Amino acid sequence: MKNVKTLALAATAVAAMSGNAFAADRSDLHGSDYKWMQFNAMYSIGEKPENPAAGDQHDYLEMEFGGRSGIFDLYGYVDVFNLANQSSSNGDKNPGSGKSKLFMKFAPRVSIDALTGKDLSFGPVQEVYFSTLFNWDGNVGSGVNSTFWGVGADVNVPWLGKTGMNLYGYYDMNAKEWNGYQFSANWFKPFYFFDNKSFLSFQGYIDYQFGADEAYFPNKDNVVMKGLSSNGGNIFFGLYWHSDRYALGYGLKGFKDVYLLTDDGATGLESTGWSHYLSATYKF
């Protein structure tokens, strides 16, 4: 399963493209519209949280998409795990494991600049948004089912360039309660171009939750859960080769009490550590 980024996002071959929305064109609301979609064949090693006794590897197919239309900026993806439904000694999505076969992230933002017709840029801030994020897996009433609501901006960061940043309040749809906040950022930086116009990029994201209640966190049955942290998250660093139609990449992802699960054995899961991702992409 992907981890909250939201970051997720996350996590992912070209997640930062959602942060690369153009500044609002107030003379032509749809003058900066664009859209994109791609399929990523992925393999994950060591993704957290993991049960050390069950394995930590899986393949998955990811449909990733995004774009801009008027006041709306959108990024999202849908993952399908263990495509052949195989069992392996190191697989964490084996048949019969009880794990969801699906995960979805949906992150629509509304440009306040475009909505009001005013240029709200200042300093390195290029455009301001009302930001939302939805994380869903295939389990009803359990698993990852959460929403995030807040404000965001496209910020010009030295060397990285335009970087999407968002600050959210976190609402757990299983517990039916607000519980802390999340800061997210994503980037996409081409840094070396070949003669055939393909290029290398440094891309990634960070999702960090904080201010959560670790003492009392009821689930749908009002049972106090143990092993929860007040803060945690993940960060992804990716090195990718891109052409007009294809991409190949490697990503290194770090976790610290991801999903606010502590790494002290209270849940039986490892929620802190590093993982590796391999991807091959076809762009439509």
From TrEMBL:
Location in or out of the cell: Cell outer membrane
Protein known as: Outer membrane protein OmpK
Keyword Membrane: yes
Pfam families for this protein: Channel_Tsx
Family: Belongs to the nucleoside-specific channel-forming outer membrane porin (Tsx) (TC 1.B.10) family.
Keyword terms of this UniProt record: Cell outer membrane, Membrane, Signal
Keyword set includes tRNA processing: no
Record's signal peptide: 1-23
